[in-house]
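Thread amino acids onto this structure.
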């Protein structure tokens, strides 16, 4: 991602209230847009239902 896009991404998402876990999930997705829920579970060491809950929250926030 170019510096321009990265700066824009940071600015947009700094204006939205995200939990630490939601920020971690977004970072994983940003680094690997094709990441699976299973990979997120392994990296964050939380269960898949928690991942799904956070993804749902991010969708509601239109992130």
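Threaded sequence (63 positions):
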């Amino acid at each position: 991602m170019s510096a321009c896009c990265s700066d824009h991404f940071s600015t947009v998402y700094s204006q939205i209230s995200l939990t630490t876990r939601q920020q971690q999930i977004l970072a994983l997705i940003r680094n690997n847009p094709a990441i699976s829920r299973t990979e997120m579970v392994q990296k964050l060491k939380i269960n898949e239902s928690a991942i799904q809950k956070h993804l749902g929250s991010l969708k509601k926030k239109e992130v």
